[in-house]
Amino acid sequence: MTMTAAYPALRLRRTRASGWSRRLHAETVLTPADLIWPLFITQGQGVEEPVASLPGVSRWSLDGIVARAREARDLGIPCLALFPNTPPELRSDAGEEALNPDNLMCRAIRAIKDAVPEIGLLTDVALDPYTTHGHDGLVDAAGYVENDRTADALVQQALTQARAGSDIIAPSDMMDGRIGLIRGALEAEGFHNVQIMSYAAKYASVFYGPFRDAVGSRGLLKGDKKTYQMDPANAEEALREVALDLGEGADSVMVKPGLPYLDIILRVKSEFQVPVFAYQVSGEYAMIEAAAAVGAMDRDALVLETLMAFKRAGCSGVLTYHAAHAARLLGA
Ligand code: PBG
């Protein structure tokens, strides 16, 4: 870095001295177009079920989901991420409901595409909202999640979602090799423009707790997900995961959770110069809400500062439960 002058000729506070100048010198911008809004789907009609561990977040029946899609469009949010809360009687060991073309996810995709065709839909590929054991894949007798059998099921799940109208397939399961298999299957069925956003660097994190409440898998989960999700101690391995998924045909990659892993975002972006997204996950949302609720920090400022941090670190966009609120704060 070249310094052109030294103090007192150089005073970095000069450009910070007024609002117009701060705006003029901002290196990063945050707009509603940077946001992806995750939504939880539930059965029925006219149903809103608040998620206790995510104050301000609800599961919506299809009519409510469509209303949220209209809201997002009006706020300039380009894309929604959909997650179903599968009724208990439709969950099974192998999660076959994930492959049902009339499951909650597919019905939501079709309902939104009918009503609000201009909004993008990102759909999660993993079996955990559909299994009785809460794991993302198929487990063997010892409880180990089997990679290759799971990957085959995920290919079918991805195709089911693409046929229903998904725009972005987002595998969140962390099985080896699944991106290439899904890409191949999408190409073979003519879904050339269906994107894949890989949850490439997804850590085995305590921050997913409230999400598991939202999709109803928390009480079901046997053990943990450490044999497939990454160890929070590792960064080099995240670069290998990203390289692998890009090589297999991912259009963009995700780092998850978000804020505690900004170093990973920066390293991935510096190394690969591809579109990188962060998932500001449920536990991060819950922390912000808890801090705001006790008056420790200002909610709106926290929301905007954390989202800006993702952009500064190199993200193209952020999945956040605060998307609609943030878009309003940004003046949408
Ligand atoms: C499931 C999945 C999880 C999240 C997104 N997809 C949870 C998990 O892996 O257990 C977490 C999102 C959040 O916490 O907001 N494959």
UniProtKB/TrEMBL annotation:
Source taxon at top rank: Bacteria
GO cellular component, one term: cytosol
Keyword entries, A-Z: Heme biosynthesis, Lyase, Magnesium, Metal-binding, Porphyrin biosynthesis
Gene Ontology MF terms in the entry: porphobilinogen synthase activity; zinc ion binding
Biological or metabolic pathway of the protein: Porphyrin-containing compound metabolism; protoporphyrin-IX biosynthesis; coproporphyrinogen-III from 5-aminolevulinate: step 1/4
SUPFAM superfamilies attached to this UniProt entry: Aldolase
Listed name of the protein: Delta-aminolevulinic acid dehydratase
